[in-house]
């Protein structure tokens, strides 16, 4: 009893000393310099990869990237809890956000394409057909030249950036009918690939052989077509900061916008570089040509 | 004399330890209670904002069938009708519990009464292992195996209450089984001995004595299973289809409170109506699990054969 | 039908039910293992994950899972042990105790999503812990407390009163009886409870997505100082666990080998839970021997 008490006490003292030693000898460089970016899961891989490279080049600086969704990102940056809020949509489009208090940095462009199950038997749809399909007026692929298979709509979650973009630019602002919803691109793709007659939409980086990519009005969803706005379904990826971000945040955003990142990382991850765009689009959807 | 007097009147070391022990254990309990109240407070403060700040009618929230908080519904108020999700959650929970209970209790009886050796050797480790499988994995197996199976056997797109029920059935089976087995094990041995001595067969002993004595414990097991089914998010979300429509049948896409909650929470901004409405869903989840607990408690008290241990 | 026939029939049915359940469960495990085990290699277990190229591993996520599990257990075990002792040994049977029990049951039936969101609001935002292991461990504690408390309480309740009476007869106080006699005797079932809850913690994703975060920054495995942010022991770094990683690559992963990684990670998860089970059982047996037969 007595002996075990002594051993316990010694153990506690030892742990205490070890912790104290650790605290006084912690490397000071790693302690302070870090920024946190929170938000869109679609943008997360890019910021994460850029952050890793940035840390590798600047010893002791730590870029902490988290998902959580565009809404989380915007509300966190609005409350000042983080340095950067990642978003798929313009702050102006998000309810509950005062966009005038935030600064927008567009770091990449993402194209979105409709995908259908291979059994539907269609490879092209006109925009009118697409609208009718998503508003529930057309319910069988036969009606648009496909096989006799009922259409299964797979939407993205309400409020998701991809869905907002798709409804604005593919459905011309029509709200899609109540249907199945999924909250991630990967899941939407795997459901479309396994469900006969399913249709959904994903970012270009998720297009693969398991699903049929549909052309709209004969235009193919390619990077070249997005650049000149012939393919209209695309959106910006935003890094939002406060009006006066600190130096480290500024440096990091400049790094993301640098040619090194835009040329390599952005394209590797399946986004389109903002530098490559021949047009610019405002929050209200106004298109201007970039010289 | 005074010394003896003092030492007799002084609190003994043991009673000091006793006091300290009681305080420590009580404060642990108090901490848990505090956590519960904090959760209630947080969820309620957000969830009630829908009704007090955004002035949504409670009844139209509970009975409405349109869910699209960003837009206005047919009655001119924001479309926040939670009925489809409430119905979906209830249906899926009840169906999976109905399906799982006979299997779980049968297996538990087997484990404890028929072949305890095999039960301990095979069934117990397997069930305990299954508890550790993340729900995501269940969801993906559901997507790859259950959904096509339902589509080919029962028609429809395969997404819906039925697929969710099957996935949840497998998910809650281990929990309900092992907890039922615990309840059966807790039935004193002399109950069985008395019954067997009266000439009852093994089945009669199980059915007339052991099962009855274990009813409260098994009900608790079922509640735990139902609670898990009710609160399960990621797995259900993958197979139920997440359509905020009232389900017409068991194979039409539906949604549950949790699936809409997880899908939407990242896309909304704290303090906005869209976000508050989701917290209201969380509050319903909370209240419904409270309700479940109370009901089962009531049944458990009624069904108890005897109280003394 | 006479009683004997009924007995035979019921036994047969019970055999069938048990067999069916075993088949379902084993098929499920087999499915995961068959798909996943071929993906497992030393490289897969130790190298960090890659975001968009093939060939990434799960090393950091695996470490994070274990670290988070240990932290969560370290926090929740003493609390639930205390609460379990109070409920079973001290609390009198009245309405208030019943109410407390109901409260704990409500906590246990709380959806893990709600726990995660609460953890996000409370630990991440309110306490400014950020997305960190500590926030995750607290959220897991909230999630784990009721289950553990309940199983400990049950384990204690199953110890016959004769043991307690023996303690009192020797002149021990109630607290001493509990800590020296009842708890050691109940240890094997307490361990089982811990193992069960550890399994749940290990596979939990929904409660961690918004608390421990979804990113696993590179760690410096030569630096074991808990106050350095790149140290594996640092409790304030974000930590994606294995279960969260599986969720993430399945929903948003763009690496070409996402399916293989997810299958492999699931298999690793199950094997880890299995190993953990064996270890805990072995430890439980040894402790039991040590504490009771000395």
TrEMBL record, chain A:
UniProt record similarity statement: Belongs to the PstS family.
Keyword Lipoprotein: yes
PANTHER family in the cross-refs: PERIPLASMIC PHOSPHATE BINDING COMPONENT OF PHOSPHATE ABC TRANSPORTER (PTHR30570), PHOSPHATE-BINDING PROTEIN PSTS 1 (PTHR30570:SF4)
Gene3D superfamilies: Periplasmic binding protein-like II
Name this protein carries in UniProt: Phosphate-binding protein
Primary localisation category: membrane
Upper taxonomic lineage: Bacteria, Bacillati, Bacillota, Bacilli, Lactobacillales
Keywords tagged on the record: Cell membrane, Lipoprotein, Membrane, Palmitate, Phosphate transport, Signal, Transport
TrEMBL record, chain B:
PANTHER family: ABC TRANSPORTER PERMEASE PROTEIN YQGH-RELATED, PHOSPHATE TRANSPORT SYSTEM PERMEASE PROTEIN PST
Family: Belongs to the binding-protein-dependent transport system permease family. CysTW subfamily.
CDD domains tied to this protein: TM_PBP2
Keyword terms, alphabetized: Cell membrane, Membrane, Phosphate transport, Transmembrane, Transmembrane helix, Transport
One MF annotation (Gene Ontology) recorded for this entry: phosphate transmembrane transporter activity
Its biological purpose: Part of the binding-protein-dependent transport system for phosphate; probably responsible for the translocation of the substrate across the membrane.
Domain of life: Bacteria
Location of this chain's protein in the cell: Cell membrane
Gene3D superfamilies noted in UniProt: MetI-like
Main location: membrane
Membrane-related topology note: Multi-pass membrane protein
UniProt-listed GO biological process terms: phosphate ion transport
Coiled coil residues, start to end: none
Designated name of the protein: Phosphate transport system permease protein
Annotated TM spans: 21-44, 85-110, 122-141, 161-188, 209-230, 277-299
Residue ranges occupied by any ABC transmembrane type-1 domain in the UniProt entry: 86-296
Any one annotated GO CC term: plasma membrane
The species this protein was found in: Lactiplantibacillus mudanjiangensis
UniProtKB/TrEMBL annotation, chain C:
Organism: Lactiplantibacillus mudanjiangensis
Entry GO CC: plasma membrane
GO BP terms, alphabetized: phosphate ion transmembrane transport
Transmembrane segments: 12-34, 66-87, 99-123, 129-148, 181-202, 260-280
UniProt-annotated location(s): Cell membrane
Keywords per UniProt: Cell membrane, Membrane, Transmembrane, Transmembrane helix, Transport
InterPro entries named among the record's database cross-references: MetI-like, MetI-like_sf, Phosphate_PstA
Keyword DNA damage: no
Signal sequence range: none
PANTHER family: ABC TRANSPORTER PERMEASE PROTEIN YQGI-RELATED, PHOSPHATE TRANSPORT SYSTEM PERMEASE PROTEIN PSTA-RELATED
Coiled coil: none
Record's protein name: Phosphate transport system permease protein PstA
Boundaries of every ABC transmembrane type-1 domain copy: 62-280
Entry membrane topology: Multi-pass membrane protein
